[in-house]
Automatic annotation (TrEMBL):
<feature type="domain" description="tRNA methyltransferase TRMD/TRM10-type">
    <location>
        <begin position="115"/>
        <end position="272"/>
    </location>
</feature>
<dbReference type="GO" id="GO:0005829">
    <property type="term" value="C:cytosol"/>
</dbReference>
<dbReference type="GO" id="GO:0002939">
    <property type="term" value="P:tRNA N1-guanine methylation"/>
</dbReference>
<dbReference type="InterPro" id="IPR023148">
    <property type="entry name" value="tRNA_m1G_MeTrfase_C_sf"/>
</dbReference>
<dbReference type="InterPro" id="IPR002649">
    <property type="entry name" value="tRNA_m1G_MeTrfase_TrmD"/>
</dbReference>
<protein>
    <recommendedName>
        <fullName>tRNA (guanine-N(1)-)-methyltransferase</fullName>
        <ecNumber>2.1.1.228</ecNumber>
    </recommendedName>
</protein>
<keyword id="KW-0808">Transferase</keyword>
<comment type="function">
    <text>Specifically methylates guanosine-37 in various tRNAs.</text>
</comment>
<dbReference type="InterPro" id="IPR029028">
    <property type="entry name" value="Alpha/beta_knot_MTases"/>
</dbReference>
<keyword id="KW-0963">Cytoplasm</keyword>
<keyword id="KW-0489">Methyltransferase</keyword>
<keyword id="KW-0819">tRNA processing</keyword>
<dbReference type="Pfam" id="PF01746">
    <property type="entry name" value="tRNA_m1G_MT"/>
</dbReference>
<dbReference type="InterPro" id="IPR016009">
    <property type="entry name" value="tRNA_MeTrfase_TRMD/TRM10"/>
</dbReference>
<feature type="binding site">
    <location>
        <begin position="180"/>
        <end position="185"/>
    </location>
    <ligand>
        <name>S-adenosyl-L-methionine</name>
    </ligand>
</feature>
<feature type="domain" description="tRNA methyltransferase TRMD/TRM10-type">
    <location>
        <begin position="3"/>
        <end position="78"/>
    </location>
</feature>
<comment type="similarity">
    <text>Belongs to the RNA methyltransferase TrmD family.</text>
</comment>
Amino acid sequence: MNMRLDVVTIFPEYLEPLRHALLGKAIERNILSVGVHNLRDWAPGVHQAVDDSPYGGGPGMVMKPQVWGPALDDIAAAGMDGLGGQSLDSAVPHLDNVRHDQKLGLAEESSYAGAVGAVDESDKPLLIVPTPAGEPFTQQMAQEFSHEGHIVFACGRYEGIDQRVVDDAANRYRVREVSIGDYVLIGGEVAVLVIAEAVVRLIPGVLGNRKSHEEDSFSDGLLEGPSYTKPRIWRGLEVPEVLLSGNHALVDRWRRDQALKRTAERRPDLLETVNLTDRDREALEH
Ligand code: ADE
């Protein structure tokens, strides 16, 4: 299993955390390769403007299609091989800020998958555009995305990206506009970190213990209940007796009850999609 992530942003340093911790480990083990690209490398002119005022008026700026179009073309063309850029595959950042025109040679040498003839839809890379106007990101989407070979993230800033970029990209990508929650961030970068972490941890071999994500909150539709470790008594607070009983059936039942109660309290909306047994209903009534 191998996954490639490419991120296009005007703030490449924002994506630094991708090389740390779990994702860094996946990179070292060659399960994952990551390329971070500066959108300005595709911006013509001395000022390298990437945005302009919106048609129809209104506040803010919109990111220019003439900059985004070629960036997404080049990255799609380079495919899984990756397009120079700032690779995050080593612990030491190599800040080779080669300009995009110098890097083109690299793209042309690489296998130009999908350039000729009919393209099978499933061969197209997945383009994720983080936006508060997107479909809500869920654990189920993370699960789906974890089977992808090549995911490209397009980070918009300001008031977003000219919609024609997204519409046109559908020729070369399967496109999803995704929101990580009902709040507005300054740009898509942090959303990319969130989505990448949720996705990469589900790739087999990334988490040591396979079970650990099968039992996550959400995988059974419920929030996870409380957890405890040693010591048994801390600051006068005791670990619930049942967890020390050694009776696995009793422990499982207690954990399920705790998950049900917590979900009812914090996310009653989730309960509507869970198949509740009579025993579950009883637990919820007490
Ligand atoms: N960009 C700005 N806000 C966002 C959100 N909530 N989700 C994804 N991308 C965003």
